[in-house]
Amino acid sequence: MISTVSHNALLAGLAAAAAFVAAPASAQDRVRDFDIPAQNLGAALNAWSAQSDVQILYPAQAVAGRDAPAVRGRLETREALRRLIAGAGLRVERDEGRLVALQAAPAETAVSLSDVVVTAQRREQATAEVPFALTALSGETLEERGVATLRDLSLYTPGLVVEDQSPNNPIFVMRGINSSGGDSFSEPRVSVFQDGVPISKSRGSFVELFDIARVEVAKGPQSTLFGRGALIGGINVIQNRAAPGPDWRLSAEAGNQGQAMAEGMVNLPLNDVVAVRLAARHRERDGSLENLAPDSGDGLNALRLDAVRAAVSFAPTPDVSADLIFNFQQEETDGTGFKSMYLRPTDPGTGQALAGLATDDPVWLSAPADFADGRGLGVDQQYAGVTALLRYDLNEAFTLNSVTGYRDVDSIEVYDADGTSLPVFTTMEDNGGRYLSQELRLNYDGGGAVSWFVGASYYQERARSEVDVRFDERILLAQVSGMLNGGPLTGLPQNNPAPLGLFGQTAFTGALVQGVVAQLSGGRLLLSGAEAAALAARLDPAHVETSRNTADLDSYDLFADATFRPADRWEISAGVRYTHDDKTTRWGSAVAGRSILGGVVGASGLAASGSPAGVATARALLQGLTLFGTDLAAPGLPDFGVNAQPSNGEESQDLSDDGFSWRLTGRYALSEAVNLYGSYSRGRRAAVLSAAAPSAPGGPVNFTVSPAETVDAFEVGLKADLRQSGLRFDASAYYYDYQNFQTRELVGSGFITTNAGQAEAYGVELQGDWRATPALSLFGTYAYSHARFGAGAYEGNRFARSPDHSLSVGAALSLAAPGGRLELRPSYSWRSRIFFADDNDRPDLQTGRIVADLLQDELQDAYGLLNLRIGYTPHAGDWEVEAFASNLTDEVYRKGAGSAGESIGMPTNVLGEPRLYGLRLTIRR
Description:
single chain, mainly beta, 22-stranded antiparallel β-barrel, elongated
């Protein structure tokens, strides 16, 4: 029943009703499944009353013209009500169990903020009660800020950087610490979860954000709470589950750069026990970098994405609920825009320069037709996953939770690694795996001073990675010789590659062979012009090398965590996790044909010893290369590689590793609105058993064990939720001390994991929201991060992709408009300078490369991005239209530099997103 009478009549009705609505206190906290769509406030309150079985009274004039957000999920009845009326200028006047009366709040309280209820500590809490740095954004907030990807999310999360240089290779950085790497044996530092299921391998972790309940970003070691790989933090994407009420929504948008998006959701209750929810998104965009090569598609850095989700909820009793969620996502591109930093794009037939060296100038990139089964440039990636969630309330105090996940990931990318129109260096990466996880957790909360949970988990990984690289040895020889422009024969400037035909002339390449042999042998081995020309004629224009690695992982965890409340204002939590890993890493490398250039380099190195035997062996090798060329059947002649030497079949090694991680936190409530906290935690990244190609043809595979990386983390902070003043503010300061810090080094054209020793990071993070008036909201974040290597060759270096300073600010202004309201939402994000690799592109660290790059320029200077969204919502009608623009000033910036091309002295960069704008229309139930 809904009352729309005056204030006095409302109170009289309340007094009359109080006698028969009295109920036990526990009824007020009853947990129900809510499915209340976004709608006008009066209708939303009526829906709450029906779904909670609680009568509600409210003055009609106080809710007129006001809207309520969607409230969905399994919540306590009063928590659901609090979410509906947050910021609406209402407060609870009386609560008598099965009857609630609302009243208009005093004017000074009408600007209060709503809160996001989170489960970062495995129980429902307000963010202000969580004793560590946490950023939680609701699905509504994600929509308001135009957050469609994890990269978008990072713009509004202090201390988090996410870059999608390619959909195949996202990079996560939290508090200065990088988590990347596509090898089958790599271990993450920042863990990504989808409804509690770990999805942290780089391939398959860049999930699309649509129909989302909320995203929680927890900073600091979270192994105890989040599980595997959360050395420095965790990102948990919580998707909307099927709800008991009908609902639907459709959205579409279009804009420049060929942008198009269509998205839909429908929620259908089949009966009182079972509900189904379907959601899907299609998104596409043309490339941001023009590709001058013929038949090059929609440009480089384009995207075509499809994502679908099906969820089924089953709630046979109030004590049992189960959810089954299926996810599928597929992405395709026409290639990543690896643009050469030093060489102008040219017509490969004529050598004519076609554009300049600016980051956003066009390129000419392609893949040879005889490589990678003729796939051409681009990414083809898909992943499917099934998640099963079970909650069983054993009684009022004990709850059993089960989280089961299975994922299947397949990803192929072909890219032009040298960034020029010449086919110097082309790569195909074929990665994927099968991942199974199971967690069982028992929670206890009897409402007293102690609550706790214990649990066990199992994680299985069967990962694979295959990398094919194709070199034109003739052009690579010219690059090694510093003659890529043809030298005096062409008269072209140094940054203008010669036409492709020149590299087929043995007079030119023979002279280069002569020079390379003389230089590398120290003048001890000299070839005649005829000998050099004959050897040059054997150079392979399509030399292919293949490296394959697979990794099996079986991991077992036991964990426990308890919270003790010794007094009303104090809360102390402690937790521990034990992890045991059994790992097997396999490696095999092969060549499709013998590398002539690799043989020339190897023979010259033998001759450099100066011994008669060394010189004689070197000359015999060169004669064999001239006679047999690339033929692998030649007797007694090594199967040389130029980038990675072939192994004698596949080899494997095993590793068992175990260890503990823990946390200790304390929270003190200065008042109901302000909390202080402090924490000490130990994070642990499991030992890595990495593998690399042999040092010589047919030699043993190079296996390396990087010991477990540990971090001791200390954090203090303050969280203020001055709800009645419309202000919420968090501040934290942290210090991290790392041991056995694992980094990735470029060896040949591939990256391997190595132990860089000691490192440290410290910093400060701030975030806040202020609802200044009912029509104006402001938000801001700031992060200072000082993350540096403390010892070894990298001493003093910044961590890769770690800005010292970053910030974001934004506003939401609601204005009256004819027939509705206008929402203006500008935002601005800024980051200071970053380096793209842990070596900071220092010239003295450019060792192990085929050609060293001696310029320190693989960095991005400080830059900022301005975004704007303007929306209109009518008073009558269930639709809204929005104009949007991102990177409004069309800032040119890099989101990657160096990459595989750096191994041959041809570093590349990848252009960041340009200015994008368009219109979006949404229709809701």
